[in-house]
Amino acid sequence: MTPEESLALIATQSERTRREIGPNPAVLLAVWGLVWLFGFGLIYVSAPPTALMPLWVAAVLTVVGFAGAMTYSAIYGIRSGRGVRGPSRLVGAMYGWSWMIAFGGLTVVNTALIRLGLDADLVPLLWSGTSLMLTGLMYLAGGMLWQSKLQYGLGVWIIACGAASVLAGGPYNFLVLSVAGGGGFLVASLVFLVRAR
Amino acid sequence: MSEDGLPQLDPVIHAQARLRVTVALSSLGPGDSITFPRLQQLLDMTPGNLSTHLRKLEDAGYVGITKAFEHRTPVTLVELTTRGRAAFEEYTKALHRLLEVPGDGRA
């Protein structure tokens, strides 16, 4: 092997290992971006004044989309770490569980507030505000854990979208979530895709 | 350094198969190890071939091999040692130095 061949071999093999072991967030972010764009978009156009379809149909479709994306994320996370043992696996598992634990807690708090008589108009704002803060925070944490400024930046963007959606009020909060939130994920996905080249 | 002033390439690493093994292991996070079958799959090597090269790397102290049990199933875990990581770093540095030197660059 000449030094050039050695260097080429190092580049090829490290690229392949990185692609197979390390997570490739481009696809994952694209899935979430589309779910946000179409899910929240559907709710927005189904709410008055547009009322394109019954709101409950839109809500069911969105929930199905989110459940699918969550399942995909979980499978994806478990698959990418298979065969690897050690600190990074522990960090990955703790990160995955953090999503479940945090959203479990948030669901308990929000449903309790609703049952205690929260104004019905405020319910969508409560959900979009709190769940976006939490999602954004998890992306901030991911950015810190894997030293990814892009992931951290996405976290900042999601928190900004969450705040903006509450300030916009219903039903415009869904428009903000769809276009700015979903769009943010899609832009981040594109940046990861370009970087991986 | 050899007599003509060119850096020597570590013969343990400077072989196609062992270089690929070293690169794959160096891509893991510090302190992380990988199971034998997963490593085999990443490298497209037969078990026999991979074992042979791992043994040479282990003899040089570059690779650590641990046998453990997970849920009563035996697993073989492979990791790059600190020494192996340093040797790989030294090897890539030597490659770059060789490329800076005029000449055909063969080692």
Automatic annotation (TrEMBL), chain B:
User: Under what name is this protein listed?
Assistant: Winged helix DNA-binding domain-containing protein
Q: What is the lineage of its organism?
A: Bacteria, Bacillati, Actinomycetota, Actinomycetes, Pseudonocardiales
TM region(s), chain numbering? none
The UniProt record lists the Winged helix DNA-binding domain at 24-99
Please provide an example of a Pfam family that matches this protein in its UniProt record. HTH_34
What the entry lists under SUPFAM superfamilies is as follows: Winged helix' DNA-binding domain
Q: Which InterPro entries match?
A: WH-like_DNA-bd_sf (IPR036388), WH_DNA-bd_dom (IPR027395), WH_DNA-bd_sf (IPR036390)
